[in-house]
Request: fold
Amino acid sequence: MRLLLAFAVVVLVGAATGCGAEDETQRFAREAVESHLAGEKAYEVDEVRCTANPRPWFVEAQATVVICAARKTSGGCDWFRVDFVPVAAGVAPKVRLEQPDAGCVLPP
Reply:
């Protein structure tokens, strides 16, 4: 019983400390797409969601591409690709439409 209780506490602490929280890569990509779509009446700019950066223990390098779903005012979502292009001051986002009407569920 104690083992089950300890496991439940660990799961709850994990959930409270970041599961579902946006990581820095997602935020950077989301803000780039929101900026790219600013003024576009075809999109709900506050409804942009992006794929997460893979966890560091599964990859050796930072992601260089992120896919973001932008909700359209007419319904559904378009997918935008954000490439992180190296520049002198770090990286700059390059945003382009990847797939129109791709759906609102992003790949893991």
Observations:
- Strands lie at 43-50, 65-72, 77-87, 90-99.
